[in-house]
Design brief:
Elements lengths: L1 E5 L9 E4 L9 E11 L1 H9 L10 E2 L3 E9 L11 E4 L13 E5 L3 E3 L6 H5 L2 H14 L7 E4 L5 H12 L3 E5 L5 H6 L4 E3 L12 E6 L5 H6 L2 E9 L9 H7 L2 E4 L6 H12 L7 E6 L3 H8 L7 E5 L3
Parallel strand pairs: 9-10, 9-12, 10-11, 12-13, 13-14, 15-16
Antiparallel strand pairs: 1-2, 1-4, 3-5, 3-7, 3-16, 5-6, 6-8
Helix pairs in contact: 3-4, 3-8
The structure holds NADP nicotinamide-adenine-dinucleotide phosphate.
InterPro entries: ADH-like_N (IPR013154), ER (IPR020843), GroES-like_sf (IPR011032), NAD(P)-bd_dom_sf (IPR036291), Quin_OxRdtase/zeta-crystal_CS (IPR002364), YIM1/Zinc_Alcohol_DH_Fams (IPR050700)
Organism: Micromonospora sagamiensis
Pfam families: ADH_N (PF08240), ADH_zinc_N_2 (PF13602)
């Protein structure tokens, strides 16, 4: 099969298309023919570092988000059969090898793809939507009528978080550059702040913050929370995390790393099937242009998601 591999850490051009053996599903796993693979910041950070967070070093194949068709099932798998259309975020944070024509995945790291979206739209969802779900629903437990501040609301995680928060009945305040406000209003955002010209730190009585940025955004966001409110940071390794300030302000602050999650993936699929969640696609490129996809991602200005199409 074809896959995108790298032998060293470095700039996007270290990514190269190679031929390698098709993986073989072991007990509890399925083999998926990949139709599309989503691209995430963790991919370009891992590529540049030349190391996964788990310590895995090159040569390796990047990519966690996959949408495709079950080709084969391993021993013990009852959830899927060959021919089923599935999507998910297998194995994270261990290497999953989604930038390839085939991947194996533990069966319960996948769910059925909703019929109302194609593989490109499905591959855009898993990691970013699971992150938003686990942050806002599982961790912050946002409630109907609450005010939720979503930073980088037009980004991969942010635009899905906006829709998930709306589907839970919350009011959404988003930060994004002005050119993206109309789009975010159409996704349901209630209040928008152009972070380049206005200070979101003037907000008060926010119930929950989704902090996708870190750095000085974290202490500034803590001050927007009501007493007992919660900030969920997506930057678990941010060295300056202000736990002491949260205590002083009588608010909660926590950091999460997304996990493979069958129930969460099913919740995401159900929202999609009901028409309450859709991924915006910033760019679609063929698998062989993964380096170009990373260059686009590293501009830190994507609106929605970048996806590699594998079967066209
Ligand atoms: N902990 C976890 O499990 C986890 C999971 C997923 C993602 N993450 C992390 O979360 C971060 C966001 O991920 P992502 O996929 O959403 O990234 P992304 O799609 O690449 O983010 C791009 C977006 O960020 C916006 N942006 C950039 N600087 C901003 C600022 N100062 N204020 C507000 N918006 C800003 C840009 O909008 P403008 O053009 O308007 O600036 C753009 O729309 C990354 O660091 C990623 O590694 C962590």
């Amino acid at each position: 099969m074809l896959a995108v591999s790298q032998d060293v850490g470095g700039p996007p051009d270290v990514l190269k298309i190679i031929e390698m053996d098709r993986p073989v599903p072991t007990v509890g796993e399925v083999l998926v023919r990949v139709h599309a693979a989503g691209v995430n910041p963790t991919d370009w950070k891992t590529r540049a570092r030349g190391q996964f967070a788990t310590g895995a070093v090159p040569p390796f194949v990047l990519g966690f988000d996959v949408s495709g068709v079950v080709e084969e099932v391993g021993p013990g798998v009852t959830l899927f059969s060959p021919g089923d259309e599935v999507f998910g975020m297998p194995r994270f944070p261990h290497p999953a090898g989604a930038y390839a024509e085939f991947v194996t995945a533990p069966a319960r790291h996948l769910v059925r793809k909703p019929a109302n979206i194609d593989h490109t739209a499905a591959a855009a969802l898993p990691l970013a939507a699971l992150t938003a779900w686990q942050a806002l629903v599982d961790t912050a437990d946002i409630q109907r009528g609450q005010r939720v501040l979503v930073h980088a609301a037009a980004g991969g995680v942010g635009h899905l978080a906006v829709q998930i928060a709306k589907a839970r009945g919350a009011r959404v305040v988003g930060t994004a550059s002005a050119a993206k406000h109309d789009l975010l209003r159409r996704l349901g955002a209630d209040e928008l702040i152009d972070y380049r010209t206005a200070d979101f730190g003037a907000l008060r009585d926010i119930d929950a913050v989704l902090d996708t940025i870190g750095g000085d955004y974290t202490p500034r966001s803590l001050r927007t929370l009501r007493k007992g409110g919660i900030l969920v940071s997506l930057l678990p390794m941010d060295p300056g995390f202000p736990a002491g300030l949260a205590e002083e302000l009588d608010v909660r602050a926590t950091r999460i790393l997304v996990e493979p999650d069958h129930a969460g993936m099913q919740a995401v699929a159900d929202l999609v099937a009901r028409g309450q969640l859709r991924a915006l696609i910033d760019t679609t490129l063929p698998l062989g242009e993964a380096a170009q996809a990373h260059k686009r991602g590293e501009t830190n200005s994507a609106t929605g998601k970048i996806v590699l199409s594998v079967v066209v």
